[in-house]
Amino acid sequence: MNDQIVRFNNHLPIVDEGDFLYAIERLSPTYLDGTLNPFFATKRSFYLKQHYAQSPAVLQNHLVSLDADFTIPPRTYAKKGEDAEEGETGTGYGFIPRGCSTNSLKYRIATEEVDGFFFYLLKQKLQTAEGFEDYHEREQKEKEERANALGTLDMQIVACDRAMKKLTKRLVQLSTIDEEEEEDLTDEQRAEKEKQEKELVKAIRDEYNRFSSEHEALTRRREVLLQQTSQSQKRRTYKELILKVLTYWPDAQVYPPEALIPPEELPMIVDTFVTQVGLDTLSPHFYKMVIVWRDPAWGEDTLICFRSGNPAIQWSDEEDAILRAHYPTTTRDEIMRLLPMRSYASIQSRASFYTIRKMRTHNTEHLPYGLSLQDYTVMQEIGMSVEALQSGQGVVNLAGASLVSLSA
Fold this sequence. Notes:
The chain is built from 13 helices and 10 strands.
C-alpha cells in the first residue's frame, strides 16, 4: 500500500513474511512496483556464464578425483540413442589424465547422476537432522573465529603499511644527491656509486612491490570476511528452504524446481554443506562417491553407484591383441578373465568389428553377459546379486543410474 509493505492491522498473511520477502528479493525478476530486480538479473547472468543451462555441474568447485593421476572437469557431449533429440547435448564429469589434452578422456559420468545422488543424500540428511539445535553456539564460535581472523589481518595490513612507508622514505633519501660529495669523487668512483645506488633502488622497489601485493591480497581477504555469513547460519537457512520445497521436489527429479530454488543458488547450497566430493571409477559400470560434509556431525558418506547401458571405454592396443589371440578358442569365462574390464557383449561386438570368428568351445559360462569381470567383482564385494541389481530391489534409481550401496 502506497509503495510500503503493511505489517500491522492487515489480514492474516497467506505465506510467512520471510518467504514472501525471499521470493520478492531473490526469485522475482521485478519488484512490487514493476522495477527490475538487479539481484535477479545479476545472478541469472552469472549462472548462464558459469554453468551449463540444461545440466548444471553444481559440484564442479568441490569435485576431486580419488585417483591422483586424473582431473575431473565438466565436459559437454552430444547425446546419442533413441531418446536423444537431434543436436541435444549433455554435461558430464570427465576423467582426464593429468598432463594430457582434454581429448584424452578415460571415463565420463553424466552430471545428472552425480549431482542427483548428492542432492538425494542431502535431502535425507536434512530430514533426519536434529534441526541444528547447536546453531547458536556454532554461529557464536564462527563469529569469534572471524573476529580473530579480522584482527590478525588488520595487524598484517598495518605492518605492510609501515613497511611501505619506510621504503618510500628510503627512496626519497636516496634521490637526494649530495652535490658536494659528488664533486669530490672521480669519474670511476661516481660510476660505481651510481651503479650501487641503482641496485639498491631496484631492491627497495622490489621489496615495496612485494609488500604492496601482499597488502592488496590481505585487503581482499578482509573484505571477503566482512561480507561472509556464518556457515551455521547458511546451513540453517538453506535447510529451512529445502525442507519447504520437498513436496514439490520428488526424488526422481535431480534438481529442484527452478521457480522455487533458482539454479544460481545451487552452487551456493553445495558450498554451504560440502567440503569435498571425491569421485573414482571402480569398474566400467560402477563408480564411487565420497562426500565430506562441512558439519562435523555428518562426517562423510561413501556411495557406490551403478551405471546402466554400455559405457564407452576406449579399447587399448593390448586388449585388441588379447582379443585377436584368444577369442577364437576360449570360453566366455576365459576371455572375460583375460579382459576383466570388458563385458562379453562388448567383446563380441569388438570381435565382430574385426571379423574374428569364434570356434565352438565347451560352454562353461556363468558370468553375466552384460557385465565385466571387474563389475562382477565389485558386486561380490558389496554383497549384491545380479538378480537384485536387475530387479532394482534395495536400490535408488535416478537419472538412469542406481545407488546400490551407502555407508557412513
